[in-house]
Write a structure and sequence with these properties.
Strand 8 and strand 9 form a beta hairpin. The protein is built from six helices and nine strands; from the N terminus they run E-H-H-E-H-E-E-H-E-H-E-H-E-E-E. It is an alpha/beta fold.
Length: 227
């Protein structure tokens, strides 16, 4: 998982605003790091809501390298048919549920993207990971998700490492999206622990890297939830 966050852990200026606003304040060297990281992965994943708000291309542009497969979980196939992520030139996989309307699925396929079904009512992320690995050879997946996708990936124990680009700003706001959203935990026993393994300045931005350490037992049942 890789994300840029403010000093108070926010991803955007306010609920519903694009993360691209804050990304403008990343040091050029950190922007290069972001694209180098994309080029080193087999696939990159963001949630459908991030696509609706940011309309990102999710390609490698600032460095030499191959763009990773773009993966978008969208249970109801409700991403805009003119979204930049459906642009030609880079393979794109849209993961949907069995409930996704056929007309939306067909509209996505008409843009050239592959549509895979990975759940009955919602996209089941562990199932999607198996599809990506077994059907598309994806061994390394980069997550640039918003708070909902980040939460589901962490609570399904599908995140091994987290890299954060720290921006020297405070945004505030009780409902401003932060790195991880989702359900509230009930006690400190449910906290997901991180082990700092590296930290450095990239240009003027602090970058921290963590290993994710999951506790054995006590995991909530999130098998029926997904983006």
């Amino acid at each position: 998982m890789m994300s840029e966050i403010t000093a108070d852990g926010k991803l955007t200026l306010k609920k519903g605003s694009s993360s691209k606003i804050l990304m403008k304040y990343m040091d050029p060297a950190t922007e290069i790091l972001l694209h180098e990281t994309r080029a080193s992965f087999d696939a990159i994943m963001v949630g459908a809501n991030t696509i609706r708000i940011d309309n990102s291309f999710l390609t490698v542009r600032l460095v030499q390298g191959k763009s990773p497969i773009r993966v978008i979980p969208s249970s109801m196939a409700d991403i805009p048919p003119d979204a930049n992520v459906l642009s030609p030139g880079t393979p794109t996989i849209i993961a949907v549920s069995e409930r996704a309307p056929a007309d939306r699925v067909n509209a996505i396929r008409a843009r050239g993207a592959e549509v895979v079904c990975a759940g009955r009512d919602h996209v089941h992320l562990p199932t999607l990971m198996k599809i990506l690995r077994n059907g598309h050879g994806v061994k390394k997946l980069m997550i640039e998700g918003g708070p909902t996708l980040n939460w589901h990936m962490l609570h399904h124990r599908l995140v091994d490492e987290i890299r954060l680009i720290h921006l020297p700003f405070i945004v505030g706001g009780a409902d401003t999206p932060s790195l991880v959203g989702g359900m509230h935990i009930e006690s400190e026993e449910e906290m997901i622990r991180l082990v700092l393994k590296n930290h450095y300045l990239c240009g003027s931005n602090l970058v921290t890297e963590y290993d994710v350490v999951y506790r054995s037992g006590g995991e909530k049942d999130v098998s029926r939830t997904g983006p």
